[in-house]
Each structure stands twice: as C-alpha cells, then as structure tokens.
Amino acid sequence: MYIPLQKKAMLYVRLRVRAEYCNYQSVLQGNVSSIKPDPVERQLECFAQASAILRARDLGYIVCDIKFSEITYLDAFWRDYLNGSLLEALKGVFITESLKQAVGNEAIKLLVNVEESDYEKGRALLLKNLHESE
C-alpha cells in the first residue's frame, strides 16, 4: 500500500540578540558639550555629538531565523524566552571573553527579542498542520 508522505509545515521564528553597554551616562557627560549661544543650535550640536558617540559604541546585533516543525519545540522555546532561560543560555554564547576584553571594564548587557506575533502565527500554522495530518 502506498501512502504519500505529508509535507511537514516549517516555520521560522526571528530571534534578535543585541549586546549593549550598560552605562552611557558617564561617557556622554564627559564628551558632549557646546559653546553655541543659541539654545536650539546648542541642543542640536549636543544631540549630534551624542549620536556619534552612541553609534561608535554600538556593539551590534545578530538576527537568527530559527526553524520549527514541531509545536512542542516551539512552545518550549517560547516558554524559555518568557521565563528568561533563553536569555541566560545566550549570555554564555554571545558574551565571550573576547567581547569582554574589547569593552574593557565596562559592563555590558544582552537583549533578546522574539515577536509574540511570530510565535502566535507559527503556532497556528503548526496546529493546523497537526490537525490535517490526523
């Protein structure tokens, strides 16, 4: 008896990981100033200086598209994201010794983001696929 294989639904959930310096205030306070007499020009100059400093200190980010074909794995991933386990696990991967050396004594933090709408759409697709295969 020939039973055609059902095509399994695959979906991708986008994970964004970003490393940032924890303290910008001390760097900005010591390096942003203006002597322009006009208040608007002074604010614009300070804003331009602050923007340049912050861009120069950007540690970057990584975008990962994670493929799921099983709803149990997707749900486990989402639970780990919500309860902070995913963030803790990723700290060991992204905050490396070389990154720590590059930033010197400054503290850095890791930010992780997954859009809830990505999870919900993916879950609906996998549920639909699960019901169709029954």
Automatic annotation (TrEMBL):
One cellular-component annotation, GO: nucleolus
InterPro entries: DEDD/DEDD2 (IPR038856), TRADD-like_N (IPR049341)
Protein's UniProt keywords contain Disulfide bond: no
Pfam families: TRADD-like_N
Gene Ontology terms for molecular function: DNA binding
Keywords of this entry: Apoptosis
GO BP, sorted A to Z: extrinsic apoptotic signaling pathway via death domain receptors
Annotated ranges, domain TRADD-like N-terminal: 43-98
Cell membrane in keyword set: no
PANTHER family xref list: DEATH EFFECTOR DOMAIN-CONTAINING PROTEIN (PTHR15205), DED DOMAIN-CONTAINING PROTEIN (PTHR15205:SF0)
Protein name: Death effector domain-containing protein
Annotated source species: Trichonephila clavata
Taxon lineage: Eukaryota, Metazoa, Ecdysozoa, Arthropoda, Chelicerata
